Amino acid sequence: MTERRDRIPAVLDTSFWVQAYRAEIAANCLDLFDIIVPKAVAVEIMAGEAGVAPREYPYATLFRHLQHELRTPDVEVAPLGIFGLGEAEAIALPAALGAVLLINERSGAQYARNMGLEVATVPAVIVLLRSQGVISDRAARRKLGLIASNTAPSIIEEAARALDALRSHD
Fold it and tell me: Parallel, antiparallel, or unpaired: how do β-strands 33-36 and 100-102 relate?
């Protein structure tokens, strides 16, 4: 188990949380990262669907239960003028905090990389967990399959190639 004090500061985007939940790695992320949640991201995660009877999605329920393990930013930044509110705030914040950006949207991740930010996608974290021996190759590939329909093919393919390389070293 990773020591909590060794966690990497990381700013959460909604896309990452939803896909981390679907890939069954949200709990692992608490061991790896000191997760900072922008206000707009927390609102997006907890928001229901407009025009539908009120309900709480399972990823929102988990977020609600784990919020005490996450922190809010201690600095204010102006959100970017592009992207949705959560993504705009999440991308703007890591530079001010010296943190990694946890995001799973290809366009937002690419924009952040172009800004010089360190970015981690859910597939990249799955590969990290596999490389550390936390999960097996079979589990890693199953987790990629769980999010393949909601993650850019190029991101999934890059992770699959990394898993292939890890397998060749087993």
Answer: unpaired
